[in-house]
Each structure stands twice: as C-alpha cells, then as structure tokens.
Amino acid sequence: MQELTFETTLALILAKDPRYQSEAYLFVKDALDYTQKLVIKPSRDEIRHVSGQELLEGVRAFALTQFGPMAPTVFEEWGIRRCEDFGEIVFNMVEIGALGKTEKDSRADFQNGYDFDEVFRKPFRPAQQHRPEATPTAT
User: Residue ranges of the domains in the chain?
Assistant: First the structure.
C-alpha cells in the first residue's frame, strides 16, 4: 500500500473538517518539528513524543519567531482562536494517521493553555511609563 503524501492527507482532513485553513495544519506540523528539536536531550539525537502542553509551548515560541505580534491575527485568519483549536488540529491529524498519540494524550491537554493576547501581543507592547501626577497649582 502506498503511503499518502501530506498534501493528500491534508485534503482528506479538510474534506472532513473545514474549520481550519490548510496553513494551520502546515504550521502545526512545523511547530511540532520545532518543539521536538527543543525537547531532545543534547546527549541523544532522537525524536521523542511531545505532550500537548509541550506542543503548546512550542507553538507559542515558533509563532513568535515566525509572526511576532501578528500571530493572533494570522491564527484568526486560519480559524484558530484558542489553544483548544490546536488540539482539534492535532487530533484531526491523529485520526487520519498523520500523527501518533499515546493512551495518555487527549484533546483536554490543550484546554486552558494560554491567552493569545497575553503571550503573543503583550510582549511587543511598549512598557507602561510612569507619569508623575500633576501637582495642583495655587490660584
């Protein structure tokens, strides 16, 4: 049996669940590769399973390098509005056989991950400057 290309796999996923743009799946695939490189122990050069929380952290770091403060805008365009959407994308890929999972993995791993505004936009906002209070003037 011939193995499906990622493009074919992606077309099958999108036909079944059109909530997310194809770019979202490509990003998650790249973010997973990025995350695996982050969690590899220096003494070993082997790929290991990545948990949902580890992947969310990798998504955060990778998105900041790729999109900076525009990450939430890009994600919104792709249909991603919260961390749980990354879980849906991952499990769509798992269900079609493009990714593996362990018995401990679930969509719940992606719940309450982080606030997009807090992690993607706040680091780029100017620091609040302390303004001295106006001193009353004598009249």
Answer: 12-122
